[in-house]
Amino acid sequence: MSQTLQAVRGMNDILPEEAELWEQFEDMIRDWLRAYGYRPIRMPLVEPTPLFSRAIGEVTDIVEKEMYSFEDSLNGEKLTLRPEGTASCVRAVLQHNMLYEGPKRLWYQGPMFRHERPQKGRYRQFHQIGVEALGFAGPDIDAEQILMTARLWDDLGLEGIRLELNSLGSVEERQQHRAALITYFEQHADQLDADAQRRLHSNPLRILDTKNPAMQALVEAAPKLMDYLGEESLKHFDGVQAILKDAGIHAHVNPRLVRGLDYYNLTVFEWVTDQLGAQGTVCAGGRYDGLISQLGGKPAPACGFAMGVERLLALWKDQGNQASAVTPDVYLVVQGDAASRFAFRVAEELRSSGLAVLHHCGGGSFKSQMKRADGSGAPLAVIIGDDEVAAGEVTLKPLRDAVEQKRVALADLAEAVNNLIFSTEDDDGSV
Ligand code: ATP
Ligand code: MG
User: Fold this and answer.
1) Structural domain of residue 346, as residue ranges?
2) Which atom of ligand 1 is the closest one to the Cα of 306?
3) pLDDT of 6-55, one tens digit each?
4) What is the DSSP string of 42-111?
5) Which among 8, 37, 120, 239 is most buried, taking Cβ atoms within 10 Å?
6) What CATH number is associated with residue 113?
7) End of a domain among 284, 318, 352?
8) Which pTM does this prediction carry?
């Protein structure tokens, strides 16, 4: 016997119960984004590989070792499954000249692919909601993006997510800081681990992000970028912080927050929780003023963020939230040949009046069909036998309340069903 095939490691099936939870989450996300004027955009899952190496940076973890890249077997083109959405979004905006009439607020969602070691909260196919504001220069939009995420945590009823904030300054300021960092780490070369030694001249800023406990003291005492920020950068950073303060959002300024992608400048932020173990960052983003020109566009400022859907939903469930059950309004029970044809008319009639109908297909005894009806969670069974067909009627049997079943004419069906369902719901106080 051949073995059953399994999904690729680190890539998950999302089964119906879970998928319904995702849909409810996505509904909330859509409303939330609309309230801030963001419009949806959908990009391909596959992009030319150079898009990511140019946008994210050659010496980042993502480009060095996490990308699913391959050659198109027909024309040899180098392609990559997108590891993130910002680069694709900017590519699409430039390709379609979307900034010609002014700034744009855009959002997208969907799977991203990174070849990482799978563990709780870290997968090889995972999902992000990405939010990008393109063509905005001031600190107001950075602050608005942080504010709006805070509102989402509220809307979702999530607690204990804290804000980490930093400024990465300008390219020139980072270069000065980088030179100082290299000098500092060279003076302490004996204390660097292999990773840090490799990064010393390629990307010394990333050494600050090390998780190696043995290097914490060294990193703690390293030159701080904050001390290299000029007047303009500080003004922008102060601007962001002032708006957050007015909104009552506490930000922990973390000078070691550097982010794993090269395109950021000025504001960077992460929302972090301690409740998910090591994978505690649920949302991350910041400003990327250089990216648009780096990808060949007319220079324009921008900022954005991405949220990890799996991590947010895990947190949402850990904190005791539950998706509301998705059940049909009516389960249609059918006995006999004439009834089974009549049933299609009944089902369509009910659906035309806005009800969700689960039509029992596949026959079986009355008893077994009633069992299915009960298991479906529907508040009401509509029963059709040859008797009913002959009379042009159907039987309505409430499944969750001690209410007598009754027969109604087809013409009165939709109204009778709606009455029964709504009066049933009123009885137990729910809406
Ligand atoms: P990490 O430090 O956890 O690797 P990152 O800096 O690589 O995160 P970003 O590229 O900023 O992550 O992605 C934004 C968000 O997407 C993260 O904060 C996280 O919530 C989520 N995310 C990133 N990688 C994964 C993954 N492999 N599996 C699940 N979620 C992920
Ligand atoms: Mg990562």
Assistant:
1) 330-422
2) 14
3) 999 999 999 998 999 999 999 999 999 999 999 999 999 999 999 999 99
4) ---SEEEHHHHHHHH-TTSHIIIII-EEEE-TTT--EEEE-S-SHHHHHHHHHHTTTTTTS-EEEEEEEE
5) 239
6) 3.30.930.10
7) 318
8) 0.90
